Amino acid sequence: MKHVIYSKIVTTFLAAVGVLALTTCSTSPIGRDTFNPTEVSQEGWQYQNPTTTGRNLTGVQFVTETLVWAVGARGVAVKSIDGGTTWRKIDIDVNLSLSDVYFIDSEDGWIVGDNGTIMRTTDGGISWQTQTSETTRALNSVKFTDREHGCAVGDAGTILVTDNGGLTWKYTYNSYSALHSVEFADSKIGYAVGERSTVLKTTNGGHSWERLPTGVTDFWDGFFRDIVVTDSLHVSVIGWGNILVRTDDGGISWDILRPPMPSRSFGLESSPDGVLYLVGWAGVWESKDSGSSWSLATARQQNLDALAISPSGALCAVGRNGHIFVRGANSKTWSRPNRVTFYDLSDVFFVNRFEGWVVGALGEILTTSDKGKTWLTQESGTDEFLHSVHFINRSHGWCAGSNGTVLRTTNGGLVWSEYQIIGAPNIVQIFFVDEKRGWAVGRFKGVYSTIDGGESWTLSESTPQVYLNSVYFIDEFHGTTVGGSGEIMRTTDGGRTWMLIENPDPGQSFTSVTFVDSRHGWIAG
Question: Rounded to two decimals, what is the model's pTM?
Answer without folding.
Answer: 0.62
